[in-house]
Design brief:
alpha/beta; 13 helices; 8-stranded mixed beta sheet
Length: 314
């Protein structure tokens, strides 16, 4: 009996030590903004001083557009997720996109405020800075949550909505990226603060794609490097604590602007029934489902999804 117990204890000690060594070998310290800008802030990127932050932003297309299109990315993404859409839309429309507080090159919000109300206020602050009175807001996941919340809290500033696998209602996921699980766990997020092997990032990105084979190493590298921006990992944990689905959801039926809802049928993070609920509660909205795509259909198949947007705008 004692020999068996000693064997189990020895196994556990080896296991813990092995895991500790693995974590140590994959520790990656935060990187300062200056180390990341050369690669990830190429023209037309600019930085604007706003609300105590240096906000990474791209503003493309004709400036005489009366209702510019603002593209809002999701959790752990960046303005680069919209590259495919921006290339097409900016030919005829003014297209504005930026890294949200807590993500990309913008980094943490100085007051550590990541409530949905603060994010909606941030969008309006960017609009004010750029002299935009009224805009079409398009958002994916958290960005969709921010887009429709802005329409609820600041209705005079939103002309139309495009919701792409948007968050907002409470939901149960079929599968959650492992990086999100670690960030949301109160103990793991502290113990594994600097632990971020590239394989973990790759696994998380593939988790939100309908076809994981489309995830390139260049794409993984972008998500990986931008997650290392100084302060982003701590901010991500706070984002999950503060921006819970459900806030303002009772006001969704009050949205009156024309709304297009795009959804990937293979979304394992936010299931399609959430898109159907948006479609039911936003009067006159249109729902388009893409059978082979996942949680980020605009990134996975930019052409098919932006074609739906062009039809909606026309």
């Amino acid at each position: 009996m004692w020999r068996a117990l000693k064997g189990v204890l020895l196994f556990l000690i080896v296991l813990v030590c092995g895991f500790g060594i693995y974590v140590y070998l994959h520790k990656e310290p935060d990187r300062p903004l200056a180390d990341l800008t050369e690669r990830w802030a190429q023209p037309p990127s600019t930085f604007i001083e706003l609300a105590g932050m240096l906000v990474h932003l791209r503003d493309e297309g004709p400036r005489n557009d009366k209702a510019p299109i603002i593209l809002i990315h999701g959790t752990s993404a960046s303005l680069h997720t919209w590259d495919g859409w921006a290339q097409v839309l900016s030919q005829d429309r003014r297209v504005i996109r930026f890294d949200l507080p807590a993500f990309g090159l913008t980094g943490p919000e100085p007051n550590n405020n990541y409530t949905i109300e603060r994010y909606a206020e941030f969008v309006v602050t960017v609009m004010d800075h750029l002299g935009v009175d009224n805009a079409i807001l398009a958002g994916n996941s958290l960005g969709g949550y921010i887009a429709w919340s802005t329409a609820v809290l600041h209705p005079s500033r939103v002309h139309q909505l495009v919701l792409v696998d948007a968050s907002g209602y409470p939901y149960e996921s079929e599968s959650v990226p492992i990086a999100f699980k670690i960030s949301q766990h109160p103990i793991a997020s502290v113990l594994l603060k600097d632990f971020i092997p590239k394989a973990l990032v790759e696994n998380s990105v593939k988790n939100v794609y309908g076809n994981p084979d489309l995830v390139s190493q260049e794409l993984v590298e972008r998500y990986y490097q931008l997650s290392l921006r100084e302060g982003n990992r701590s901010a991500l944990s706070e984002r999950f604590k503060q921006t819970k689905p459900g806030a303002l959801a009772a006001s969704i039926p009050d949205i009156k602007v024309p709304t297009l809802i795009l959804w990937g049928a293979k979304d394992k993070l936010i299931p399609l029934k959430q898109g159907e609920r948006f479609n039911q509660e936003i009067l006159g909205s249109q729902l388009i489902v893409f059978d082979g795509l996942g949680h980020v259909p605009h990134e996975e198949d930019p052409q098919a999804t932006v074609d739906a947007v062009l039809s909606f705008l026309d």
